[in-house]
Amino acid sequence: MSIEVIAFSLLNGTLYGMLLFLLASGLTLIFSMMGVLNFAHASFFMLGAYFGFEISRFAGFIPALFLAPVLVGLLGAMVERYGLRQVHKYGHIGELLFTFGVAFVIEEAVQMIWGRSAMAYRVPEMLDFTAFELFGTAYPFFRIFMLLMSIAIFAGLVLLLTRTRVGLIVKASLQHPEMVSMLGHDVPLVFMSVFGVGSALAGIAGVIGGPILITQPSMATALGPILFVVVVVGGLGSLPGAFIASLLVGYIQTFAVAIDLSVSDVFALVGISQPPAVFGALISDIWNVSVSQIGPVIPYLLLVAVLIFRPNGLVGKRA
After folding, report:
1. Which of 44, 162, 215, 225 has its CA 20 to 30 A from that of 287?
2. DSSP annotation string for 89-151
3. Would you say residue 279 has pLDDT above 70?
4. Would you say residue 140 lies in a domain?
């Protein structure tokens, strides 16, 4: 693997990982504060992309960057207030089934309003220029903008949850809701606000990720599974864990695409050019499969390994 490939894989892996974190941060915030694993979170990401596309058509990208997350956050708050709060008494199974249904409703609504075709959501002209050149290849500034946004949100969330009174009230509302209520705080309002903010974070990811990814109704289904890989590998409810796992998955997927190495290449190093006949047809079929071909599966193999050997995740707390 050349230095050029390594350099671009590191850049693209960091960018993709931070985009995953921007998406996973809202889900992690909701779970850590409310104990709700929101299956509809990727759908709020999709809504952010579509709202960003529509608003940018009429008002520009910068207004869309602020307005679209607010709209998604308000919608998320309404989902919590008039839906999730009503099924909370049925426990986690009821919450999971409810958010699973919300995801289907959002996907069908998007198809009814915008259709099944991909939207022409492009990088805004004001951010469409070269940031720097590396090995003679121009690297777009918009990708650097996405990276900076993700880092800023990560720093802001950490400061909010660990250094402010708001973060203290939110965490106390989860652990001791009766005591917080007796101190004069509206605990249901706190939970609704947390769900709304978490949804808004998904909306921000949609606005800045929509021009890079394909804005279409299937984008939530495509990113949803890898999102849960991130939050489980990092540790459910752990923001630093989500950050580490996002970068790890980003690097795995970008480097896997660049590695053109197969099982046969590995065994060729020790002088074995053909699979032993005793292993049969199965080994023969996978003998020439390269790492790049199985790249999309590797994060899920990592998920299985983490669940077996470290069920609490990389940074998750022991139950």
Report:
1. 225
2. GGHHHHHHHHHHHHHHHHHHHHHHHH-SSPP-----GGG-SEEEEETTEEEEHHHHHHHHHHH
3. no
4. yes
